[in-house]
Amino acid sequence: MTPQPMDDALKALAASLLAAAPASVEMPAGTGKTHLLAAAVATAADDSKRSLVLTHTNAGVDAIRKRLRSFGVPSGMARVETITSWAFSLVRAYPHLAGIVVAETPDWALSDQYVEGAARVAAATAIAEVHATSFDYVFVDEYQDCTLVHHAFITAIADAVPRTVLLGDRLQAIFGFTGALAEWDAHVLPSFPAFAVEPIPQRWRGHNEALGTWLLQVRSHLVDGLDFDFTEHSVPHLTLVTDTSPTSVAAVAHAFRDFGETVLLLDGAAWRVAGHASRLNGSYAVMEDINGRFMRDQINGNCSSPQHPVLPLPAPGEPGLARWFAQFAKACVIGLGDLNNPVLQRLERNQSLTGLSRDGIQPVVNALEQLRSTATYEQLAAAAREVRAISQVKVYRWEAWADTLAAIALSAENGEPAIDNFGRVRERLRRQGRKSHARIASRTLLVKGLEYDHVVIADLSQFRDPRHLYVALSRARKSVTVIGGSMRIRLQNDRPRA
Amino acid sequence: MRVRRLEIKNFRGIKSLDWALPSDQRLIVLVGPGDSGKSTILEAIHYLLGDRWNIPVSDTDFYGVDVSSPIVVKAVLVDIPDALRKENAFGLWLSGLDAEGVLHQDPEDDHTPAMIACLTVDETLEPKWTVERVDGQSQVLTSSQRHHFSTFKVDDRNDTQLRWTRTSALGRMSVRDGGDRQALSAASRAAQQALASHESASLTELAAQVQARANSIGGGQFTDIKPGLDTSRSSMGAGLALYEDVVPLTSFGLGSRRLASLAIQQLAAGSRAVAVVDEIEDGLEPHRAVRLLNYLLADDDYSQVVVTTHSPVVVEQAQIANLATVQSHDGVVTITSLAGASEELQRVRRSRPSSLLARRVIVAEGKTEHGLLMACLDAWDTERIADGRSTSAGEGVAVQDGQGGSEVPRRAAALSALGYAVAGFMDNEDRSVDAAVEAAESTGVTIVRWDTGHNIESQICANLNANGLTKFVELGVERRAAESTVLDDLTSIDSANPITSLDVQTWISAGTTLDEARDRIAVAANKRKWFKEVDDGRALGEWIMQYRTRTALREVVRRLDDIYAFVYPQPLPIETEDTEVGSDPSAHG
């Protein structure tokens, strides 16, 4: 990021936000919320005031740190963390106050326990003093994603550091699987009065400013219970496609010719996303959720679907490693249809594949046979290389493929269970961010906060929750293509599961 | 910041110390005999909390020169400076101290938040500073972090503090103020020609601050402190130093230099400083030492001050709650606060403060016994010096006038409880104190009493013959200044039988029995106070020492031998020939 000195208007806005704290700031997507946050931290730092900045994702942390650097904020003047990593630090330091004892390295599956414990730590008098002594301001970004558990933790910190600013956009509040979200009206505004900012569409500058303006206007229409009809809206580069057939989706997806530009293809459920990606023949890579649920199922096995049970990864030397690899490859790759039941059944019975001939993928069959007779993780890696060597075979679950194999390769080295190594691989991803792919197939939940040149909504009927729809639309800088049997939908908020 | 607990292991003369510092006293005056570890305690605090990035440690700094047992200095700190309580310092490294002084892993709401600072030196001689938690986790504690402890020590190497150098407090204050770097370097350059031509307002101002503070500490001595050019250390080139008029402060007496150094270091440390001062009276007249003590007691800029003293005046003038005695037994050091001390101890402190500076204390019945013991100690010391053996001063012996027989066992027991070796030296005519005597003896006090029913005069007279009694009466005449007075004293006991001669033999010839004569003289000496002042007692003691080989004084000398054995404890077993000394009167006769 090139250095951007704050202009006077931004400085003044940042200063008045600091003066207004405790406050909450609601800003639509792409209108410079993070920019304002960074400016406020920078303005505070100019006055020798330190800030604690919390957000949800490591990507968010990186983005904020980059902006702070560009504003020349000395690193000592702001501590930028994810909510859970700060919670972990507190719980790790004060297990008695937290009421839980945690291991040296975090297990993010236990995030909620960390945050609950951290709320108790932050409420202790001595630690409230630590917060109060350490920080003059607290900023929490993407507050709409805070669950009630997060909210209790942040409230405890805000009790110690009253000058707390919460930033977010309730229209982007997408319910994950982590518990009920804090409500803007019920939880935020009573203690953190609204600080009004005139939204200026920043993201679309030099791309499609009309789209940006429209996305601001359309917010008031994206309300639970209202009907929304795309045909009533005319915006440059908003394209409506009513043919929902796979060939139509493929035509749309393959129409983007400029490979310097990024395209995001969205659908509602994970299996729908994977279906698109496989039908698109690997040209779109499936984005996995941060915990890598799909890969964990591959490694641990999953019997929740009796028709399609997922076998767990066997240890080296155990029979069934070849059978497992065949299953894993078929789940991540398109073009291995000929690894059909006869092949799989032989592997299941640990019978030789010699004599079976499969045109085009014979090297894979040979590699599976080798893996069957020599069941080592090294041999598995060799088989994976054979899969990749065949030109008509395409990996569409690229992230799952690479991370699972990386975990298995680590196990070949250190002898530890692959699932533990997988945790390390994903932890690295948390810290370093995802490999960027120009073509991504994903769900709204996973792309919050990210930007793409083009967005394709693969099936409008899956986007009836106005918040999902808004997040989907607002990811695009240049164009939005909506595919749907009907362009008119009844908007309805998803209800959190009890 | 304050130290609430201090642990020392294997540092110099201290094998172990675990000291819970009084939480309600800002000033702590450590008293006790020499070599009990007082100065080592101050050095340990300074090493642990001072901001030097390295400390000079050698093999001899290890207890018993045994480098295999690491030196550990550990302090529990409360009122932690904000800079260290930040989350990027030790905000996540706090511990909890409960009301009973017990440490807990986490600072819970009914605890005082505390920080455990630790200095460890092992055989590599590499000092390591850490902050620890109860579970043993530790984190490095840097020199710049220790700077926030604002802890400094005033000692004899204080001349650096009177100069502007990169590391001195003056230099750091000037740099901290900003902009003075230039003045400093300009001044140094100007020093090549003449400092007088360069006027630095801020340096002058700082010098004025030093003057004001030094004067308020020490009672007004300086009138014109200013920066000046110090060329005394020609090998190091000329530098800036503090001057009083035309005299560099480095040329002042020790006391003045220490006062100025204290003022400067406190200015540099800022408020809430922790100061340690070894031998607070060093170089100061008693009134200035007391003035300094009161200043330290009252100055809010200090959060804790720990000093040592060897000055009875300081012991006497300090608040009793500020005093703490230090005792060492084979390197195991104990510190006992006198806060809440018994009545007896308070009287000990008032009447004879130096007792608290001694290792072995004899509480004597009264002035007579006090004087008598002084004479004995003089005589014994003279003999022992001739033999090349230790003296009573070397043994750290103090004699305290108990101001009455009933006080002796009580004061002795109170001192014994503090760890002092104590003997009581008293009459044996008052049965009401027997219970107290027994109680004192059960706590390890040595009680030396005359034969049952005797006071000092009657014990001396008990076995004298007529010649001996006459000599004793002659001593009485010396103390009473006139024969007629003594005649009057003797007559007053039985006016029906007036005494006309000071030669007791004439009484015997006239029909008085020897026992009657002994009794009459002893009662007269006692009633008419022949030996009631310390000097009289001393004369009596000299008299006894003169005649100590006479069998007639055997019982008296036996008691003094007991005292001798207490004053000069048995030497180490290796010198077995000497162990008989105390029990054989002829050996020192």
Automatic annotation (TrEMBL), chain A:
Pfam families: UvrD-helicase, UvrD_C_2. Residues 447-483 form the UvrD-like helicase C-terminal domain. Residues 126-181 form the UvrD-like helicase ATP-binding domain. This is DNA helicase. Keywords: ATP-binding, Helicase, Hydrolase, Nucleotide-binding. PANTHER family: ATP-DEPENDENT DNA HELICASE SRS2, UVRD / RECB / PCRA DNA HELICASE FAMILY MEMBER. SUPFAM superfamilies: P-loop containing nucleoside triphosphate hydrolases. Coiled coil: none annotated.
UniProtKB/TrEMBL annotation, chain B:
SUPFAM superfamilies: P-loop containing nucleoside triphosphate hydrolases (SSF52540). Residues 1-52 form the Endonuclease GajA/Old nuclease/RecF-like AAA domain. Residues 159-316 form the ATPase AAA-type core domain. It holds the Pfam family AAA_15. PANTHER family: AAA+ ATPASE DOMAIN-CONTAINING PROTEIN, ATP/GTP PHOSPHATASE. This is ATP-binding protein.
